[in-house]
Every structure is written in structure tokens, then in C-alpha cells.
């Protein structure tokens, strides 16, 4: 399922992020408690379920496979992903002529002599350790697509892939 959000711009403190609608539209960073609330998936339980027959109780156990209890590593990975996302947009400000020239040059097969990739993150671990659950849980905190309509009271019709 694709999540889409309308751009809501937040002022940026860092000078290099100011005036960049791609960065200003990224949702504010979640607090540690906010992240836990956003990613935790706890199975529902009613005390009366203890009296259910064995077959129905076995079905309840399957709920545990979808259970997510965020560990401290979730905070670390979220912080890394958040800053990596912002850093990836710092040199891609669509309001700057240099960025538009770069984009036009890419579409025209012109040789680009500047960095064209963003930083990346590597997460390793044993099979079944929860790497995919970790990443999917954290990515669910970001919209996949941000739709822009106006920026600084000027028309700016653009959709950008956030994650």
C-alpha cells in the first residue's frame, strides 16, 4: 500500500536546508516515545480467551508473529534513516538553478562531474533476527510520496518519492 501525504512545510534551522521544499516537507522527527507508539504492534488479549478451546487459542498464537516490540536499536536506526534522508536532499534543492541544470543534464545524457548518489545504510544480522521488520516498521513512519501544490505562495506542482 502506498502512503501519500500533502506537503506541510516546516522551517529549518540549518541554512543549507532552508528554502528546500523537499526537506521542509519531510515530517518532523518523532520523539523516542512517538517512535515507540508509531511502530509498536502488540497483540490484543482478553482474559476470557484463556477459556477458549485449544484450536482457537492456537490461532491466537499466530498474532505473536505480527507483534513488534521496538528495542533501543529502533531509535538508532530511525535517527540514521532520518538524517540520511535529509542529507540526500541537501544537494538536490529544486529551487536552485544548479539543481535544475543537473537534472536537465541527467535527462540529456550530459556527463555529470558531481556526486549523484546519496549515502546508504547497511543493516546486517542473522536470518530471522528482525531486520526486515525493523526497516519496514521505521519506513512506515514516513509517507512514501509527498505531493506539493504550493511553496512560498507560488505554484509548485510536484510529487516526490520520500522513501
Q: Helix and strand layout, with pairings?
A:
Elements: E1 4-6, H1 21-24, H2 32-39, H3 54-61, H4 72-90, H5 97-107, H6 131-139, E2 145-151, E3 154-161
Parallel strand pairs: 1-2
Antiparallel strand pairs: 2-3
Helix pairs in contact: 4-6
Our Rg estimate from Cα atoms comes to: 21 Å
Low-confidence stretches: none
* Overall geometry: elongated
Order of helices and strands: EHHHHHHEE
What is the SS-derived class? alpha+beta
Helical percent range? Answer: 25-40%
State the total count of DSSP E strands: 3
Number of helices: 6
Mean pLDDT: 88
Q: Looking across the biggest beta sheet, what order are the strands in?
A: 1-2-3
Largest sheet: 3 strands, mixed
For the termini, the CA-CA separation is: 13 Å
Beta-strand percentage?
Answer: 5-15%
